[in-house]
Write a structure and sequence with these properties.
This protein is α+β, with helices and mostly antiparallel strands and 686 residues long. The chain contains 18 helices and 22 strands. The longest helix is centred in the middle third of the chain and has 41 residues. One of its GO terms (molecular function) is catalytic activity.
Amino acid sequence: MKTTAAALLVAEQELVAHLFVVADGRSRDGAGQTIDLLISRAEEHLRMTDPIPLNGGPFDGVVALRQSPDRDAQMVMRKENGVLRVSILLAASKSAVDEHEAPWRRMDRLLDAVIGDVTDGLIGVARLYLGKRTEKSLVMEPAETGAAIAALLPESGQERGWWQRPSSAVHGLTAWELTPRLKTRTERRIVVLAAPDGDRELSVWTWSDGRPLFPPFARYLEHVAKVRYQARVHACATPVSELCERIDGGILELQGLVNAGRRTNGPFVPTDAVSRGLATLRADQTQVATRAAFLKTMHRTVKIANTSAQAALGGDAAGQGALFHDDRELGAWFERQLEDDISYLESAYEGAARMNESLGMLTVPHTPAQTPAADPVLGIVTAMPEEFAAMYVMLQDRTRVNIANDRADYILGTLPGPEPDTPHRVVLTLLGDVGNDLAADGCANLARSFGSVALILMVGIAAGVPDPEHPERHVRLGDIVVSTWGIVDYDHVIDRPGGAVLRQPFPRPSRLLAHRANWLAAEELQGRRPWEELLARAAETDLPEFARPDAATDQLFLADESAHIVPHPDMGLSGHRPGWPKVHYGHIGSADRSLRNARVRADVAARYNLRALEMEGKGIGNSGFANGLEWLVIRGISDYGDNHTGSLWRKYASLAAASYTRALLAVCPPVAPRGGHTGTARASAG
């Protein structure tokens, strides 16, 4: 009876759900599976078998549109900025009226059958219980209305007395949040009520204005969900205080050991205990630097999300009431927390650095590598003469060799590592032409001819993906892109009625080198960029014709058929420094296409979140995986993959990639020969 009385207060009950799922980086394959799963369940449980016709389209980012034949259930899937947005609307069906169960409760059960156990990559979920206030409820106080309609809502997820919180008002709508106010909550349940004549305001704000565009309130909820997602990630990590305590404890232990050693007569001689302590301190220092870099990125993400959330609310006093106040308080608190954490980590790092300096050039004892000079452990593959020349000048102790039954030419040499007397033994080769097949063949031949090689790097040039509308993602000529997230084989697809999907996951790149790339990223955040010194010296002394072209030649055009130049974003926003390359980390697309089409480049890059596109990475990754080799692709950006492509930046881009490669290996520990191998095919010096 209580439910019947409450039903007189709310008309036209509907349920809208918005899911936000990570859809970039390593979660892209999972997002694709989520799409397939939700479409299948929507067809089974909600009879969503019909497409929703688009008027005035196409609309960017729309992945799927489904509805039931009676239009009582609709689903829109969108993908933008690495997030899959799934929006579902359930209306009270006249044919399914149950006077013993409120429509909100029945629709909530149906929704559970579709989205209830979706957790992979989940950023957040918002369930919006929509309705219109009746004349009877208009004369009631908001808290009185909330208390009455609680009987219409699902019991799960309700915090006792939620209606006693101040209601929130935005764009003429009244809202309450039902869920307990935990900082890291994944799901939010919110009642949103409109005036009796407020159909349009309710729909535009929470669902649609008639087009498949993302509604403002959903956009707001997504940005706040991102803040809470980052808070959950932060809470699951090793506490910053623990990392700092390790550094402090290591410094105190080393100080004690050094002081004890200095009490003896004669010069101080480091003991094994001091060497082990220093090695532990350096490992902790690396972890602190990596965490600081990670938290700086997190802080930037949270700051952007907080700002974007307020912008999504529009000019309505940025939202009023408990719901919006709690969100603003959370965002401000988390920003301050991250700032404090970063400050503590930087202080710990500086303390460890001072201890390292006070101990001079003390290094941990090590056993020199036993690999013979002719047995390299790192292979470097290039595809073009400019790429080969740039990498060649980076090598030391160079010797040309040829291997019986292998037509390729090889250069044996060394590259400095972190231990001065244990350089990396490398072999460099030049492919006969560009392309993934030749790259795979070249990688296989190198692995066969040099059985000691354990790791392959593909170093050269690629087409960059500019994104002036998102400055932090904008790639410019001369920049460097490192495939730490992997290679996307974007032409290896299954053509389905809903569009092409990748046929299978691609092998992952070297964890070792990806970790060392993170180390370089942490170094850069502290103002250290060793590749820049290598790049400048090589361009000045070894390859002056590889010098950086004039900045005015880095031109980005509106379209292939247009001569209109698009301005690059402000360097302060994009993270570029005048005269130097920016290093990007992420996905690189690879296929047997030489792109000269800006539209195709933009479409492929947006679909797979790419930073660059090239023609050898797929071959290197597949062949490396097949031959038991770790691998990584490093690219300098020579063009934008459009019809305006030229060769002016090719040499500089090659040298930039080579310089970064040497800097990366300089912080990479010695690599063991493959499978303990110490022999090689018979070689002859050239």
